[in-house]
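Let us practice reading a record.
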Amino acid sequence: MYITPDTIEELHIEITNKCNAACPMCDRNIFGSIDKPGKGLAEWNLDDIDRVFTGLPNLKFVYFCGTHGDPIASKYLFEAVKKVKEQGAKIEMFTNGSLKTVDWWKRFVNILDKQDRITFGVDGLETNHLYRQNTDINKIISHMKIACNSKVRVRWDFLAFKHNEHELETCKKFAKEINVTNFRVRRTARFDLYHPWPVMNQKKEITHYLEIPETPELQHPSYDNLQKLCNQVDMKKQENVDAIVHRMETRTTNFMLEKDPVVDRDWKIKCMYKEAKKIYVNSRLDVFPCSYLSDSNETLKALTPNELKYPQGELCLKNKNWKEILDHSYYAKDLVNSFNNSTVIPRCVRTCGVVDRIYEQNLKVDI
């Protein structure tokens, strides 16, 4: 089996898929411009919160980290966090940090304790807006300081690009000054699809490009292996940008493998969620093995012909409990079997077959 309710120790949840930002590599939008066609906005209500946190006796950790949304955009975040704390679990919340007021942040950190953590995604003091579009660095710093002056732990996540690598040391120094607990560099694997990666405005006009950092340590270690599995497009040489945008708008996948993943079996899937005794619940209460597979479903990406299909409508906590969902054949046998046969999901190969994301994507830094 993939997992059972009594063995789940970690829960990754998206209580809302609303977000104020327009990050160009986020799969909710087209290079930072308009939202992709998909299932639309969704958010948990109070009943949903009870459903999700009922029936997990050994839950130890909950990640409030959206695939398409920012958790602080939810109007029920306080209630969800309090429910988790009542069950004795720790939380970590990931956010771009620019939403809400100073008063909101002061109230929020007061319901957390020293075992909890808030992770702020901030990619530079002068350059943060080049990736995290529509955010306000002054508000972010103000909110980070409130968190740093509370009992909660604070982590700074710095997503490395060519345009911001020169700011890394400055950010580390500033993080130490405001009492950030941990600093982490994130090395994106997404340049396997497009390099350089275009950034667009609402008119779908390219305003600038994202590029791989020049510093080798800040580059993703599996970049070369990932390139072998995907059809990378050089957007600066692409004559018809509209054709690329159209492909994304018409819901075809940009994660299609160039080679048959079964014939060219030079990978072994090491499912990081399964090993961590962790599972994912999206903003519609659909239970997915991980956030990566939920992401593909949310934006209605096309499937490869033989891959194991997610049973739409059958694994939702709005109408079933945890035991009923995890007893379904998808979790009871089909998913784990797919790791080694012709029904393998290409996203599994790309994410856990050639990349050990836990160790390769994140680079801990001393401050």
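A brief commentary: Residues 252-259 have pLDDT under 50 and may be disordered.
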